Amino acid sequence: NVEMPLHKARELMAQYRQTMPINLPLPEIDMEPPEPPNVLVDAVSLGGPLDARMKPLARHVLVKDLNKVGTRMKLEHPKTGIFGNKAPMGLYALFDGQSCAGDVGPQAAEFCARNFHTKLLERLSKLPAAQADEAAVENALRGTFEDIDREILQNFTDIMDGCGAAVALLIGDHLFTALLGRCSAVLGEMEQAGRCSSHPLGGGSGQLTADLPRLRSAGGKIVGE
Question: pTM, whole model, 2 decimals?
Answer without folding.
Answer: 0.76
